[in-house]
Amino acid sequence: MEVRFTETVLRDGNQSLMATRMPASDYEAILDRMDEAGYYSVECWGGATFDSCLRFLNEDPWERLRLLRGHFRNTRLQMLLRGQNLLGYKHYPDDIVRMFIAKAVENGIDIIRVFDALNDPANLETAVDEIKLRGAEAQGTVCYTRSPIHTLEKYAELARQLRDMGCDSICIKDMAGIMTPGDAYDLVSLFREETQLPISVHVHCTTGIAPLTLVKAVEAGADRVDTAISSFAGGTSQFATESLAYGLEDLGYNTGLDFNALNEINEFFRPLKKKAIEKGLTSIYVMGTETNALTYQVPGGMLSNLQANLRDMGASDRLQEVLEEIPRVRADMGYPPLVTPSSQITGGQAVSNVLTGERYKIVSKEMKAYFNGEYGHAPGQINEEIQRKVLRGKEPITCRPADLLEPGYEKAKEKIGSLARCEEDVLSYALFPQSAREFLEKREIREVMEQFPASAKKVAAEWVKEEK
Ligand code: CO
């Protein structure tokens, strides 16, 4: 019996525990050792890392990828991609999606895990097609959620759609950490039977149930599990690599992991966590166990946002009513999984419905866009009466949202002009216009200054720092 590990410390661990603020220079020294640990893959790019490189770290995300590739000679590099949203928060035109994936693979990515917040297959199609064209592994994702319509049959249908689309493997992704051991067992068994594809399981420790869920997933035949090295594990991150590997080896599974290497990797990352705590990038709150999400059926992050919003409005005493309104709003919306952005949209609407005393009296721009079909198809039936009220009689779109977008690459190239020196620069700009432009401008300044003598350079360095 074999089960393989995907190490998440460089991406999800970094993102969940330290707001994605770990620069590559902090961990470069351990990468060669990580390459020897026996991981199936290392999740190291995508998600929020790209945005964070440009916006906070003054680091070129493409250069980071090439650096990773240079060190990981034997281990597959894995990234997380939000389907048609790529690494951003809106739909991008197909030409940008295709070009971005082509460049990600060209610069070293082996596996692309692609998901859509609504589990709408139409939002994954272009990305999966391009991943296959470029010869990388396309890992289709089923976002786990609980609702009256999310039956095993509904999930099986999704898994079959991913298989038919050409996905090479399937990920069950539980971002809120609310997947029960029983559900994990059923879903993994079902997906294996329905698709015959390798199954990856991605869970977070937020509610503390993760290790039970992982063990049952492996018992059901999961091929790969996501974990984070122990100093970056637990809380809102993944379960610990060493602990799960140790336990599974005891149960007779071969993990292929080298425990001496794992130990060294952990010793390396431990001080980085300490540094993050000292800098205020992380807190004990994201590291603990928060079981509320299991009872309230809303993700932990969403719950704390609601509490904070209500407190700001002097309405803390209305929390219970809001928590009761959320399932009703969610039902009106056709039961979207509660992840970004649908969790914010749903929560905001529930608050407004309760505080105004009239349902859908006030509706956010995002909620209008949702009911207008701009995020894609809802998993279930949308409440048409509410939809009409919100859209004021306007017909919603029924096509794939990206079908309405003009090609964007040439336009982006023109706009950023000579600041972009390669296609990768243009793509950074197309995804994050403001932070990419600032990054590229700083690069120009830095390089001009480098031609000056050391004394001038020192002044210039100070100046660039202040610009931040
Ligand atoms: Co995650």
3D architecture notes:
The protein has an 8-stranded parallel barrel, surrounded by 7 helices. The relative contact order is 0.12. Helix 6 packs across helix 21 and helix 16 (319-332) crosses helix 17 (342-356). With 468 residues, the protein is of the alpha/beta class. Strand 7 (199-203), helix 10 and strand 8 form a beta-alpha-beta unit. The chain is globular, with a radius of gyration of 23 Å. It is 52% helix and 9% strand. The protein binds cobalt (II) ion. Residues 12, 175, 202, 204 line the site of cobalt (II) ion.
Q: What helical percentage do the residues reach? A: 40-55%
Mean pLDDT: 94
The number of helical elements comes to: 23
Biggest sheet, strands in spatial order? 1-2-3-4-5-6-7-8
Beginning-to-end CA distance, first to last residue: 52 Å
Radius of gyration computed on alpha carbons: 23 Å
Specify the biggest β-sheet.
8 strands, parallel, barrel
| Total beta strand runs | 8
In the predicted model, the low-confidence regions spanning at least 5 consecutive residues are none
